[in-house]
Amino acid sequence: MSVVDRFTLTATIRTVSDDIADEYGDPTTSETLVDVPCHARQIKAEESADDVESERWRIYIRPDGPDLKTSDLVDVLGMSFEIDGPPAVHMNPRTRLVEARSFEMTAVA
């Protein structure tokens, strides 16, 4: 079974970018939403003595999917996540084709 066969979830990528200033000259932002098929799995969960929970996940998207940046937020499985660094590339060892890119994410409250 290839990684692509596991893309049974839909993630919403929220990209926030600077927009034109409002009538008072204050900077504004705009948000772009893009839905992509994906696979997500938890890779780490912790709870500290201060009752602070930390979850790390990995999301897999198609290689031709959007380029995710660390400023993007990902909504999947009813949770929001921040991207933690550059993507990893996953190749099929038989065909040597790139099947997916994965990003590590941290759950945000």
Explain what you see:
There is one protein chain. Helices cover about 0% and strands about 60% of the residues. A six-stranded antiparallel barrel has the order 1-2-3-7-5-4. By secondary structure, the chain is mainly beta. It is globular, with a radius of gyration of 16 Å. A hairpin with a 5-residue loop joins strand 2 and strand 3. The mean pLDDT is about 85. The chain contains no helices and seven strands.
Offer a concise description of the structure.
The chain is mainly beta. It has no helices and 7 strands. It has strands at 9-19, 28-47, 53-61, 73-76, 79-83, 88-91, 98-108.
Q: Which sequence of SSEs, written as H and E, runs from N to C?
A: EEEEEEE
Task: Identify low-pLDDT runs.
Answer: none
Shape: globular
- The strand line-up of the biggest sheet is 1-2-3-7-5-4
Total helices: the number is 0
Class by SSE composition: mainly beta
How many beta-strand elements? Answer: 7
Helix content: under 10%
Note the gap between the termini.
34 Å
Major sheet description? 6 strands, antiparallel, barrel
Q: Tell me, rounded to a whole number, the average pLDDT.
A: 83
Query: Strand share of the residues?
Result: over 45%
Radius of gyration: 16 Å
